Structures are given as structure tokens and as C-alpha cells.
Amino acid sequence: MTIAASTDKTETGRYRITGMDCPSCAGKIEKAVRSVGVEDVKVSTATQIMTLRVDDPATRLPEVERAVAGIGYRLDRLDRPATDGEGDIDDLPKDLAHITPAYRRALWIVILLNIGYGVIEAVGGFISGSQALKADALDFLGDGLITFLGILAIGWSLAWRARSALIQGLFLGALGLGVLANTAYRILVQQQPEAGLMGLFAVIALVVNVVAVLPLLPHRTGDANVRAVWLFSRNDAIGNAAVVVAAGLVAWTGTAWPDLVVAAVIAGLFLQSSWSIVRDARADLRERT
Q1: Does residue 84 lie in a domain region?
Q2: CA 129 – CA 106 distance, rounded (Å)
Q3: pLDDT (tens digit per residue) in 268-280
Q4: Residue ranges making up the domain that contains 284
Q5: Whether this model's pTM surpasses 0.70
Q6: 256-260: which pairs have CB atoms within 8 A and are 24 or more residues apart?
Q7: Among 108, 155, 190, 206, which residue's CB has the most CB atoms within a 10 Å radius?
């Protein structure tokens, strides 16, 4: 862990976090750290780095590690000294033993499933006229791209992870704005989606989410990764279930409103996540300049 002493006898520690999937994960981790009495903590969604300031680090840091592991995330201390302005060494995690070739292959399976079905579901959204399907497709694409960034960024410096996350956040934000704009247009024209196709694609999406979890389970490390994987799967499944329910309501009411409401909610949450990624990436880049 990189330690910097200060005049008030506090120390600054930094960790790499494994298992983060979205900005809400950063909030959960910060809440867990504050629950053990450490108020000065910041988790970057962009680079998956946690920075905190503590007094009595010999006592506080083990408490922090237990609290974060207890909610389903893995921590690796960043304890190598920096050798240049980019942080190419000090940002490398000390323990990469869990990043095996088999684990990388599992991550690639998850990437292909998420991005592949994200494209399919987007096409299904256009065919059925469902905005909710298009918004849910963004969730698949976002998960796939975040995992893709994670596998590419293994061993990257903080600065390069931040640059990559910034580009990703801007791209995903543009997709989210596109869905919201199209949803607003559909509110005006009130075109009812094909409920049967909408429900079919949503059910398949739920199955794909479950299948995407399976390749990672043999590579879990303790409770950290497996809990995180199931949390992500649960959250994605809630979104899929919302689309299924919307399809049923469209068929029942004979109107497009259930589809439009679900689309707006999912796209709004997606935009909030994208903004958090961009914000954290810019903050990380400012720290490196």
C-alpha cells in the first residue's frame, strides 16, 4: 500500500478493488468503509481505486479490509513505489494470483455474451418497437464494455485506466441520450410496441444474464467475487423482469405507456452511471497531472 505521512499523523492508503460493476458499487464500498469509522474515503468508478486517510492504520486498515470483503469485493494493496509521472508501477496490484488464463477466458465469455446479446436485444427493440428493450440493451452493452475495460486494464497505470474509462463513459452516455430522445419522440407519436416480441426478448435476456454468471463461479476467490457476481446478476435480472412486466402491461392496457416508463427509468439510471464514470475518470486524470 502506498503510504504518505502527514502533519496531523494520519496516513493515506490506496487499494485496487476487484468486483466493481457500476457506480452504485462505489457508493456501497464507501458506506462500508465509513461504517468502521473512516470518513475520508473516495472510490473511483473509472479506475477501481479506493483512496482513504486513516489514523492508527495498523488497526483501521484491517477493519476496512474486512468491511469491504464482507459486502462482496476484493481488495489489493497498492504498495510499490512510483517510478514515473504516470504511476506505471505504483498502480499495479500486489496480488494478481487470481488473474489466471482460465479466469481471463471466463471474462471473455461474459464480454461476448453481454455485448452480443446487447446488440441482439437492441435489434429486437427496433423490430418490436419497444423502447424498454432498447434501454435494457444498453445495460448489456454497458456491462460488457465495463468487463472489457477491466480485462484490458489489468496491470495498466491509473492514468491509462482513467483515459479508457473516460472514453467509455462518454460513449455510453451518448447511447443513453439517444434512447431518451427516441423515447421522448415515441411519447408524442404513441406507437404501441409488439408485446409478444418484447416479452420474448426480455425473457431471453434474463436467461443470458444467468448464463453469463456461470463461467465466473469456478474462479471466485473466497466470498468477495462470488457475492459481487450474484449482486450484479440480481440487479440485471430486476431490469429484465421490469421489461417483462412492461410487456404484459402493454398487452393488457393496449397502450405504449408501460414500455415508455420503463425505458425512461432504465435509460436515466444508465445515464447516471455513465456520468459517474466520466466524473471519476476526470478526477483521476487531474490527480495525475
Answers
A1: no
A2: 34
A3: 877 877 787 787 7
A4: 101-288
A5: no
A6: 256/186, 256/190, 256/191, 256/192, 256/193, 258/132, 259/130, 259/131, 259/132, 259/193, 259/198, 260/131, 260/132, 260/183, 260/186, 260/187
A7: 206
pLDDT in tens, 241-266: 888 889 898 889 888 888 888 888 88
Contact partners, residue 218, CB within 8 Å, separation at least 6: 102, 106
| In a shared domain, residues 56 and 117 | no
| Amino acid occupying residue 282 | R
Q: Which residue has the cell 469491504?
A: 68
For residue 14, is it within any domain?
A: yes
Tens-digit pLDDT profile for residues 192-234 = 788 888 889 989 998 888 887 777 666 555 444 445 555 566 6
Q: Give the amino acid at 215.
A: P
Distance CA 242, CA 57 (A): 45
Q: Please name the helix (run of DSSP H) or strand (run of DSSP E) that holds residue 161, with its range, or none.
A: helix 158-189
**Residues 102, 104, 107, 113: is their CA dihedral positive or negative?**
negative
